Every structure is written in structure tokens, then in C-alpha cells.
Amino acid sequence: GRPTNFSSVRLAGRSACAAGVVARWLLVVLAPGVMAVGAGAVSIPKADVAGSKDSPIVSRFAGSVIVGYARVDFGTATLPLGRYSASKPSGFADSEQAEGRVTRIAYAAPAGKSGLEVYRNFEQALRTAGFRERFACAGVDGCGGYDFSTAVFKPVLEGVRGDAAVMIETLQPINGDVRALTAWLERPAGNVDVALLVSQSPREPVGMLLQVVEAKAMATGQVSVDAKAMAEGLAQAGHMALYGIRFATDSAALTADSDATLAQMTALLKAQPALKVYIVGHTDNAGTLAHNL
User: Fold this and answer.
1) Which pLDDT does position 287 carry in this prediction?
2) How far apart are CA 72 and CA 69, in angstroms?
3) How many Cβ atoms from other residues are within 10 Å of residue 280's Cβ?
4) Predicted TM-score of the model (pTM)
């Protein structure tokens, strides 16, 4: 469930590799015939990925550069709410899917910054903005293993524009130095979920993956169902969901983009005058629960 306040985070991350391990070479297959070798081999770009920009809700850590970027008007994101768990499909002992406008930004911090400094700055900024913590972890022990960071960024890597080798190098720490935070903000314009991953390998810049999900109603009316399909659906299942009918915000007035679906409903009822239907409407998830009720 949703939390009631933003508690402090106790960090217990490890800062060194296992005894005798100086570095681990990371071999990553990026595409057929294309490979990149890590452990310091990847150089960080000096400019942001073309066409990228900061989220208007959460800014970047000062001096960071965008190395990966993706934004969709309506999509889904997995919010980690528990430690890493290999037995769970999501990779986490507990998680939740958030829907809405999804922005994913991978950053590389400037040289000389630590993962703890970066994390604390994000934590403070989110708390000040009114976000409430839902989950936080740090280190191998706190986050459930070395694979926690991989479970966060691997499923979304393919859809993020940028240099995959740089993102893997900065987001998958070889020593388990990782911190994560999932937080939530309730606001009239639509709730906001944030999932933050902060990672750092020895002698590497801090990597950050910021995922911001702004709850919004999906644009409907883009696909219509004709009268024949409605009749078949009702005959087979006894009910049918229609997504092409929309109302103005805080109003019972129908919007113009409902006309196509209403016309097909009218055609169906005219063709079957004996048909009796029961119509049920539901609100979207825009606005607060108290307001919608």
C-alpha cells in the first residue's frame, strides 16, 4: 500500500570487492558481432544524448550527463518494492506496475562524486518535494544480491536511446555498491512514481537510472468498435468494454471524440430495437482519490 511518510534510509552498502579481487572484466554482447569490454574501458560522453532532456519533476544531479533516454506518452514501469529475488518474474521480492507517461533517463555523474553523495541529494530533493518513500535499499546485503541492479535496468535497456556499453558500465557495479529508492507523490494533476538506481564501480563515475511515471489517462478514441462487433461481443460474453466514450474533466458532458463510438452504439440499438443494455461508467486515475470519490 501507499506509505504515510518518508522515513530516513539506513545505508549498509559494501565499498570493496571480495578479498583478492581487483577488477572483473565485463563482457557484454550488444548486438550480433558487436561486443564491449568493461572495467574502465568505456569513456563517458561529454554531451547529453541527442533529443534528451531532464524530467520536469526531478532534475539531474549537478554536472551529470545524460547517457541514455526514453520517453513514452503512455507506458508501464516496474517499481521495485523489495529486495532482489531470482524466483520472482520481476526480479524483486515485491514490485508494482505503474502506468502513465514514462520517462527513463540514465546519467553519469561528474568525476570525484560518490554514490552516497548522489543518492543523498536525490533523497533530499524528493523528500522536500513531498515524495514519500515506498522502498529503499543499499549494498549487496540490503538489496538482496549483486543482481539487483541488473534486474532494474536490464529489462528497459533495449528501449533506451544511448550507448548501451556506457549504461552497463555505470549501472552494473562490480562491487555491489548500489542504492535504490522508490517513492511516490500524490498531486491533483496526477500521482507520480519515481524509481531511482544509483551505482558505482571502483574508479568509475557514478551511474544513475531515473524512472519517472506520471499517472495520466490513456488517450482513447483512437480505435473504434463498429455496431456488428458490439453485437457479436454482447452475444458471446453478455457484456463488452468500450473505451471510446470520454467525459470532460469534473463534468458529465461528453467530449467530441466520443461521437464515433456513440454513433455505432446508436446503430446497434436501432438494428436491434428489442435489445436492452445496462451501461456502467468508470473514472480514470487522474486526480486524488478523495476528489474522484
Assistant:
1) 61
2) 11
3) 6
4) 0.66
